[in-house]
């Protein structure tokens, strides 16, 4: 009996998946445990194995295409089995209500509409379009052809419909032509002004939004518009951290970065200020006793946040090894759900890109995120003397429903003290 294999939900935030690779094609024998395909979720590309034996009878999502979670990915059954009824019974609606309404409006339109001006009160732009249309030669197929919906949109937008090129049947102007019309690209729009105008062509490219980018847009929009953010910035002297890092790397089996130092110091500061290590849950606040630090990693399609678990209980060399491993997995889209779930606090570091300071949007469900800038050689005053110093700026973004200004400032003071005297990180 044929079995429908549905698009899996590979992460808690996944709503759609993209088939990156198919390892089987229609007609191939499939065994339980074999890899059917590689599915791209909003966070990673993961292998998806078969839970059934049989023959691949139908593929519902072609390579490179996306489909909602729980839609038909493929059908596995016995060779020669008819699955057409199964496909029809489980097919998703082809169009939304809005799209259906547009199709109905387009179908109701006359095959050819001739624009006329007698006793009609229309916008000046439409009158001009009609005049242009009526000056065209009177051959049977040269009249202005546009759907009522397109004409209405042109009137609302003040677009000269006579300058719009139709993409519908027989060159008919339809809704998409009006929506995609750019006056700067229309012919014969230049007028002589006594000087030579710049010559060029406007152009652009468009790309489909990846599943990762869709999720980033949705989650961060929700965060920014639901969590009342406030920001605290502090300067930290990093001269001692420089010296400490050199001494550590002389004996460490793994190269320790400044980001690793910041992660370890942040974990220690969170242990002293547990209320910063928290989440807003609507009718209650969760104060986490464990410290899992999310590390924002820039990848081609956006941003991933793998998690350093129990960061306060790990040595600097352990953190360094883990950040390198997770960073490589993130860039290669090899992260698994266990690698990105469960953060209680997030760090976003743009210092390696030459950024001095910035503010970051809170990564739900965390109550705070720390934005880390680059280390800059700066004149500083010490003991009444101006001397060269190494300064790093950090900015704490906090959810004011959970963390107040005084608590956020106290946390940053502790972090500053730890990084300015790195030996205390180990205490």
List the topology elements.
Layout: E1 3-6, E2 16-22, E3 29-30, E4 35-40, E5 45-49, E6 54-59, E7 66-68, E8 72-77, H1 84-90, H2 97-108, H3 124-134, H4 148-157, H5 175-179, H6 211-226, E9 229-237, H7 239-249, H8 258-272, E10 278-280, E11 285-287, E12 293-295, E13 297-299, E14 302-304, E15 307-308, H9 316-331, H10 337-340, E16 345-349, E17 368-382, E18 385-399, H11 405-420
What does this structure look like?
With 427 residues, this protein is of the alpha+beta class. Helix content is 29%, strand content 23%. The protein has helices at residues 84-90, 97-108, 124-134, 148-157, 175-179, 211-226, 239-249, 258-272, 316-331, 337-340, 405-420; strands at residues 3-6, 16-22, 29-30, 35-40, 45-49, 54-59, 66-68, 72-77, 229-237, 278-280, 285-287, 293-295, 297-299, 302-304, 307-308, 345-349, 368-382, 385-399. It has a 6-stranded mixed beta sheet. Strands 1-8-6-3 form a 4-stranded antiparallel beta sheet, with helices on one face. A hairpin with a 2-residue loop joins strand 13 and strand 14. Helix 8 (258-272) crosses helix 9 and helix 8 (258-272) packs across helix 11. The radius of gyration is 30 Å and the shape is globular. The protein starts with a strand and ends in a 7-residue tail after the last helix. Mean pLDDT is 82; it is low at 93-142 and 186-194.
């Amino acid at each position: 009996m044929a079995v429908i294999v549905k698009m899996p939900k590979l992460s808690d935030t996944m709503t759609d998946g993209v088939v990156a690779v198919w390892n089987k094609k229609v007609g191939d024998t499939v065994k339980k445990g074999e890899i059917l395909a590689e599915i791209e979720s909003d966070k990673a590309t993961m292998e998806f194995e078969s839970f059934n034996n049989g023959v691949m009878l139908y593929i519902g999502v072609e390579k490179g295409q996306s489909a909602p979670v729980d839609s038909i990915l493929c059908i596995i059954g016995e060779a020669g089995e008819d699955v057409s009824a199964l496909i029809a019974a489980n097919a998703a609606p082809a169009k939304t209500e809005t799209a259906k309404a547009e199709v109905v409006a387009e179908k109701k339109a006359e095959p050819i509409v001739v624009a006329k001006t007698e006793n009609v009160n229309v916008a000046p732009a439409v009158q001009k379009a009609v005049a242009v249309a009526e000056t065209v030669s009177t051959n049977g197929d040269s009249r202005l052809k546009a759907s009522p919906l397109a004409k209405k949109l042109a009137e609302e937008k003040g677009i000269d419909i006579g300058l719009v090129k139709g993409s519908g049947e027989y060159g008919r102007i339809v809704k998409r032509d009006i929506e995609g019309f750019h006056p700067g690209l229309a012919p014969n729009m230049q007028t002589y002004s006594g000087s030579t105008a710049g010559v060029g062509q406007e152009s652009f490219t468009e790309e489909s939004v990846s599943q990762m980018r869709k999720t980033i847009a949705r989650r961060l929009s929700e965060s920014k518009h639901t969590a009342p953010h406030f920001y605290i910035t502090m300067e930290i002297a990093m001269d001692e951290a420089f010296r400490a890092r050199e001494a550590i790397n002389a004996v460490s089996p793994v190269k320790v970065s400044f980001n690793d130092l910041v992660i370890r110091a942040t974990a220690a500061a969170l242990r002293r200020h547990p209320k910063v290590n928290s989440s807003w849950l609507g009718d209650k606040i969760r104060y986490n006793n464990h410290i899992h630090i999310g590390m924002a990693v820039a990848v081609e399609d956006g941003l991933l946040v793998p998690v350093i678990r129990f960061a306060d209980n790990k040595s600097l060399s352990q953190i360094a090894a883990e950040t390198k491993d997770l960073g490589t997995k993130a860039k290669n889209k090899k992260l698994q759900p266990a690698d990105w779930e469960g953060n209680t606090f997030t760090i976003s570091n743009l210092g390696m890109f030459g950024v001095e300071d910035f503010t970051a949007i809170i990564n739900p469900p965390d109550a705070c995120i720390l934005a880390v800038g680059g280390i800059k050689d700066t004149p500083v005053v010490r003991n009444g003397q101006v001397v060269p110093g190494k300064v790093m700026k950090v900015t704490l973004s906090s959810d004011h429903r959970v963390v107040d200004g005084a608590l956020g400032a106290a946390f940053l003071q502790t972090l500053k003290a730890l990084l300015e005297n790195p030996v205390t990180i180990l205490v």
